[in-house]
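Running this now, will post back.
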Amino acid sequence: QVQLVESGGGLVQAGGSLRLSCAASGRTSSSYAMGWFRQGPGKEREFVAAIRWSGGSTYYADSVKGRFTISRDNAKATVYLQMNSLKPEDTAVYYCAADSDSVQTAWRIRTAAGYEYWGQGTQVTVSS
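Update: finished.
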């Protein structure tokens, strides 16, 4: 079992930045791919970014490419999402997710069904 706790959300003006963190605990000795998803008001949960265990491969949704950066520190069992040039449409609850790196593919890592473990979410609100 892996427990995930997100932090770093908040209220920011358009054009601003936030850095989300996701701390993992429990069976963190295994190799996990990590992802960020978000769910805006009245919307379905959507993929934002993901990173493989080695950190060598990262994946982004087109809507955030060039503005968001995912990274990880395996020694701290933490994954980060640096969000720059935020837009009102980025407003959502952001969720961290994890699953075994060995089962991930370039397609599966972008899907919510590709993750077994989820955090509770952190709210990000971008005002215009």
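The radius of gyration is 14 Å. More later if anyone needs it.
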